[in-house]
Every structure is written in C-alpha cells, then in structure tokens.
Amino acid sequence: MEMETVKLSQIVMKCFPDMMPSLKQQELNALIVLRDGLRILEPNDALEIIQYSICENQDEQLLQ
Fold first, then answer.
1. Which domain of life is it from (predicted)?
2. Contacts for 7 with CB less than 8 Å, ≥ 6 apart
3. 2 exposed, middle or buried (CB, 10 Å; 0-12, 13-18, 19+)?
4. What pTM value is reported for the model?
5. DSSP string, 1-64
C-alpha cells in the first residue's frame, strides 16, 4: 500500500459524515497524508486524525 494525500473532508465523509456540519471549511480542507491509504483507514484512527486536525487548526488561530 502506498501513501495517499487526502483532504480531511474525505476522511470525515468516509467514517463520520454526521460531523461535516460541525467542522470549519479550513479544517475540512486540511491535507492529511495517510501511510496506508484511505481505503483501509479504521474509524478509531480517523477519529484521532480529526481530533488532531481540529487542535492544530485552533493552535494556528491562536498564533495569529
């Protein structure tokens, strides 16, 4: 399996589509590199990626 770069929105749509309205467009557009690709991404891993992306976005907002 090769690495794959996807937008966070693709991960959210695959695993937790109900979360889409809760996330900001900037968060949804974040690029995520998946070591083993989107096809085999597990929900627990997806949730961890989503949480981390939200925290990263908040940290960037505070620094500005």
1. Bacteria
2. 28, 29, 30, 31, 32
3. exposed
4. 0.85
5. ---EEEEHHHHHHHH-GGGGGGS-HHHHT-EEEESS-STT--HHHHHHHHHHHHHHHHHHHHH-
Backbone angles phi, psi at 7, to 5 degrees: -80, 150
Find out whether 5 and 37 touch, Cβ atoms under 8 Å: no
Tokens of residue 17, six digits = 């589509």
User: Token pair for residue 4?
Assistant: 């794959």
Q: Mind listing the pLDDT tens digit for each residue in 4-56?
A: 999 999 999 999 999 999 999 999 999 999 999 999 999 999 999 999 998 88
